[in-house]
Amino acid sequence: MPEHTDTPKEKILVYIRAEKQKTLHRRQVCINDIASVYCKYSRYEGQIKGMIVDKIRGKKSVISVMKIIEQITEIYDDAQVISIGEPEVLVEYDDNSKNKILEALKVAAVCILIFFGSAFTIMAFNNDISISGVFEHFYKQIMGVDKPQVSVLEVFYCIGLAVGIILFFNHIGKRKLSDDVTPIQVEMDKHNKDTWNTIIDKVKEKQDV
């Protein structure tokens, strides 16, 4: 237990900003692993950061900020802890036992499935609305002659389809075209929040048993 020497007369203000989720490669969890800590007195800040707050049981654990505050105030009874982050932290344990080759094969398999699945969906849509018949009718109305097997309509349709997908997702590889948030990013953010809340509830149920 840290010694209290030269303790300031005023209250020790400790600010904690807990993370929403954290992955660790060890089961022992220190406050510094899951939260940012600030205190005017650097000696106290360093001691608080190194405090062990919990141990990961299984693959996931939920650590409440209330537990962190309780542990800090037990040692520093003159501390006033102010939380400005998440009320709970989801901590995952990763033992680095994943097979990198297997992970790469999984990613490759998913990419192949998405590529051919998307291609099949586009072809099925084109066939459903009879896009070839639409092109033939449109070409004959404009040009006055029968459409050749491959015309400018198919070329620009393919280009427009690719450009539309790129603009909608706002990405070319890892590069973003602009800083605007896309609809898919909004939906993914909602999905991640719902997933996080559900995982938190499930892990807490297991811990309470």
TrEMBL record:
Keywords: Membrane, Transmembrane, Transmembrane helix. Residues 14-95 form the Stage V sporulation protein AA domain. The keyword Hydrolase does not apply. It comes from the Bacteria. InterPro entries: SporV_AA (IPR021997), SporV_AA_N_sf (IPR038548). This is SpoVAA. The chain crosses the membrane at residues 107-125, 150-169.
